[in-house]
Design a protein that fits this description.
By secondary structure, the chain is an alpha/beta fold. The protein is 43% helix and 25% strand. It has 17 helices and 17 strands. The strands form 4 sheets. It has a 6-stranded mixed beta sheet with strand order 2-1-3-8-7-6, with helices on both faces. Strands 14-13-15-16-17 form a 5-stranded mixed beta sheet, sandwiched between helices. The chain has a 4-stranded antiparallel beta sheet with strand order 10-11-9-12, with helices on both faces. The longest helix has 26 residues. It starts with a strand and ends with a helix.
């Protein structure tokens, strides 16, 4: 199995000034191509540290991909460090990258300065893949077996995410031409409503019976539930797909409606609605539009998501959704009676087949003995009737809102599943 390490260079990452998105994108691309990523590390802007840490990664991996430290300013020192690491005696100008530098700067109406031209200068020991999206070239260093104990390759990419991601196809093409890659297959399903520890206990026998080459990972997320990922490395693709699908079919028998397929609850719901030609809308108070945002983040949501009302104020609940004022006066906005009318109101306004509504107390203030912080009422409405569910969760404001939304979506998912089964 070809193994790789991903290294980011720059103090700005270590001090939290920017978020490293490159490593995630590169890792996904490598896994899809059949390269196993063993580590992701960050190195500060220190010449000796760069050489030392990259040397360690080259000893341990077949491929090392480096991003960052290739700009035109003096604090970008990666190129010098790589020259020393590779034993370069000097630098040369790559004419293809030089042409790109002139073209990019001219198109922006900028003067071509010496520091810009210097970006086309590369160590004599490297090959260059032209960076069509920026001025810093993609450098490729191939090390013989005697250097690190095995043949290994280092790819140095710009740190700008747009440029790094844009270079990936060329990098992968080069990797395929120099390495024999085996397939890696991952599949993820999601569970909802079962805590990770309880889930582990429920599926303990199933997990213990998994084949030795199949690896299980637990990935909890407040908006998705607990995701379960099965992976096989160095496999034949069709066989791996068949084997993992078989294992997940056995898991469904254990977890029943607590398990769902898809990358998210809204993706799963959207798939069911699309296939059954049904629609949905939502009325949100405590979730403040989060449910609608999650729906509309899915491509093609316009096929089944009709709209929403963020009825944060009681006047909107009564004036727009048609919740009777006496219900709020008698029971309060956070109540079974109110949330049912909210769901029915938005379904009537939009003409949707299904509606979900939320009203609760996210905190940190606003709670009482009868209605504590973390309380939420969730209403689900369809032509077959309207039901409401009371949950009391514990967390800070942000986590409560996320969990209010995800629980509402899960209850909607279960309702749609049950009604589609009836029909």
């Amino acid at each position: 199995m070809v193994q790789a390490s991903i290294c980011t260079i720059g103090d700005e990452i270590l001090i939290g000034q920017i978020v490293d998105t490159n490593s995630s994108g590169i890792s996904k691309a490598l896994n899809a191509a059949g390269v196993q990523v063993t580590r992701m590390i960050s190195i500060g802007d220190d010449h000796d540290a760069i050489i030392s840490r990259l040397g360690d990664e080259l000893k341990a991996n077949d491929i090392v991909i480096v991003t960052g430290g290739l700009g035109p300013t003096k604090d970008d020192i990666t190129k010098q460090a790589l020259a020393e690491l590779s034993g370069a005696q000097g630098f040369r100008t790559d004419e293809r990258q030089l042409e790109i530098v002139h073209r990019i700067l001219s198109s922006r109406g900028l003067d071509v300065l010496d520091i810009n031209l210097a970006q086309a200068s590369v160590p004599q020991t490297c090959e260059v893949i032209p960076n069509k999206l920026g001025t810093a070239p993609i450098m490729v260093f191939r090390f013989p077996e005697k250097k690190f104990g095995h043949k290994t390759t280092l790819y140095s990419l710009p740190g700008v995410p747009f440029e790094a991601m844009g270079a990936l196809e060329d990098i992968l093409e080069d990797i395929r031409s120099h390495y024999e890659l085996a397939a890696i297959h991952h599949k993820t399903v999601c569970t909802f409503g079962i805590a990770e520890s309880a889930l582990s206990k429920m599926i303990e026998d199933w997990e213990n019976a998994l084949p030795s080459d199949m690896h299980l990972a637990y990935l909890p997320n407040p908006l998705l539930g607990v995701r379960l990922r099965l992976s096989i490395y160095g496999c034949e693709k069709e066989d791996a797909v068949r084997r993992i699908d078989y294992q997940f079919s056995k898991l469904k028998e254990i977890l029943k409606e607590s398990i769902y397929e898809g990358d998210s609850l809204t993706a799963c719901i959207g798939d069911m609605l699309r296939k059954s030609c049904k629609t949905v809308s939502c009325a949100e108070s405590c979730t403040g539009g989060l449910i609608a945002s999650l729906f509309t983040s899915e491509a093609g949501a316009s096929e089944y998501f009709l709209g929403s009302v963020t009825s944060y104020a009681n006047s909107v609940k009564t004036g727009v959704l048609g919740v009777p004022a006496e219900i709020i006066a008698e029971h309060g906005a956070v109540s079974e009676e109110c949330v049912k009318k909210m769901a029915e109101g938005v379904r009537r306004i939009t003409g949707s087949d299904y509606a979900v509504a939320t009203s609760g107390i996210a905190g940190p203030s606003g709670g009482s003995a009868d209605k504590p912080v973390g309380l939420v009422w969730i209403g689900i409405s369809s032509a077959l009737g309207t039901t409401a569910f009371r949950l009391c969760l514990k967390g800070d404001r942000r986590r409560n809102i996320e969990r209010f939304a995800s629980n509402a979506l899960n209850l909607l998912r279960i309702r749609i599943m049950s009604e589609l089964t009836i029909h």
